Amino acid sequence: MDRHGDSRERSVMTGAHGPKPFTGSTVAVVGGGWSGIAAAWYLAGGGAEVTLFDEQDRLGGRCAGTELGSRTVTLGGKNIGRNYTYFRDFARTLGSVAFEPFGINSSRVEDGRLRTIDSSARLRSATVLARSTSPRDGIRLLRLASLVRRHEAEGHLGGPALTALALRHSDPPLHEYFGPRACAALLRPLTVRTTGAEPDEVHLGTLGCQLGLLMDSFDQPTAGFDPLFRAFAQRVTVRLGTRVTRLARAGDRVVGVLAAPTSTKTPTLHPADTVVVALPAPSAARLVEEAAGELAAELRQIRYFPAAVIVAEYERPVFPERVRSLVFGPEEPLSNAGAYGLAERNIVRYTFSGRAARRRLAADVPDADLLDLAEDLLGAHFPVRRQDRRDFVAGRWVWAYCAYSRFHERRLRRLAGLGAAVPGLEITGDYVRGASIEQCFRAARARVSALAARWSG
């Protein structure tokens, strides 16, 4: 797909050459994260009467706003790439969000020295990376990066060239295709940040959607996503604090959802011509099990990993201007600590992900103890002190990161076939095109476009 998408797709979805394809239809969207928001947005744009259901009390999934003292912060990802075409179209249409530059700036300790990767100093950063890999791995990484840069499709799940390369090598985990230096210096910081997984848990065929992030420049919303969520909720009916417990069926067809407020256990039928399940794959599998057992079985093969995020505010800046984050090694449960914003270097975002973090999270270590540990680790390099801490807020998610699966493109094709066999049911999520906000929008747009083409045909 090119930058603006296929022209036929655009006209079918928007009804540019006739009535909007979904006019007069009702659609239930299950899931209030970015995948659900995107699906609801495109369906409503096609004329559908959409109701979005989510069991949280705020829209946005992990990106929902959370109070830290007198301000609202975002615990989930908040970086918006300059190449986030569809998300930026969405935000521009709603007109409720402003952005400020916030490029990639990440450091790690190597031989006692800080090595910094900064997207605003690409040549210097490239030199740092080149020194961190063997010649063979350097050539392989440069070829893949060039492929992703030249062909937009390769920066998302299912890119044809990268998929073909992975198949030629039986889609190995990254630590079998690249050497230990490349895995430690470049790939692990990338995989843990984007999938919560170690290099031995990520397969080559899915690397493109992660490398694509390195090819972009980033902004962040100046006031978080809450203004955007409020504007969206004025366009689409949103039922928060409502759990969808089952899909309603008439014969083989899905005809609505059974949903109940989280405060009660008595579900109510909400009829719909189409139900879009826009949840993490494990949650989606549980919901579609009765209607589509084989589909559920495929969804369960997609790997997810947990994470915890703590955002803490301090009396004085923790990071200097030129270094905004620090990446930690595989032996530590803290994977990353970074400044919340360019001008908010006194607010630190601590991320616990990767194999070592899972052991702590499985043991249900209290948030305050995790924060003490994080401050000790960061304090070895930057001036962070408990007595300077004003406040903190924390979040944990069992299925925080999608790490996809081996031969993932084949699985996606099987999911598409199995989903098409269930009338009235559509699925989308972070496992379709990738887990970034833009990739969630692209996946939802493609699914809604395919549905529009069927209805219009």
From TrEMBL:
GO molecular function: oxidoreductase activity
Record InterPro entries: Amino_oxidase (IPR002937), FAD/NAD-bd_sf (IPR036188), Zeta_carotene_desat/Oxidored (IPR050464)
Domain Amine oxidase, chain residue ranges per copy: 35-446
Domain of life: Bacteria
PANTHER family found in the cross-reference section: PROTOPORPHYRINOGEN OXIDASE
Name of the protein: FAD-dependent oxidoreductase
Biological source species: Streptomyces cupreus
